[in-house]
Amino acid sequence: MVIIRGFDEPNGFIKAVERQLESLNILAKVNLTTKSGKPIRRTMKIKGKTLIGFGVEITELSENNSILLQEQGIGGKHKMGCGVFVPM
Fold first, then answer.
1. pLDDT, tens digit (0-9, with 9 covering 90-100), for 32-74
2. Strand 29-32 relative to strand 49-54: parallel, antiparallel, unpaired?
3. Residue 56, domain member (yes or no)
4. Which of 29, 52, 72, 73 has CA 20 to 30 A from 80's CA?
5. Which domain holds residue 34?
6. For residues 51 and 24, what is the distance between their CA atoms, to the nearest angstrom?
């Protein structure tokens, strides 16, 4: 799950993910996990606030970019396990 504050709609969210990857100099393809072709919106409650995010799959990474993405992550709430990527 990736959470990016202010982006709770799929199209804007994908663009925000692409900008964060670009800031890390990572070239890759971004896909939201889907069910029946529709992006799956995920939520998390922290201290009474609901945070909205999406499941994200990033493909077509080089080995170095894959390691960098695993080290840096994207979005927020990394301590809560969000925006952290693992190899598939």
1. 988 888 898 999 998 999 999 999 999 999 999 999 998 999 9
2. unpaired
3. yes
4. 29
5. 10-78
6. 24
Three-state SS sequence of the chain: CEECCCCCCHHHHHHHHHHHHHHCCCCCEEEECEECCEECEEEEEECCEEEEEECEEEECCCHHHHHHHHHHCCCECHHHCCCCCCCC
Q: Tokens 């799929």 — which residue? A: 10
- Number of folded domains in the chain? 1
- Across the strands, what pairs with 57? 31
Residue 39 lies in a domain: yes
CA angle in degrees (0–180, nearest 5) for 55-56-60: 160
Residues 6+ apart with CB under 8 A from 34: 40
Longest Cα pair distance anywhere in the chain, in angstroms? 39
Rounded CA separation 15/7 (Å): 9
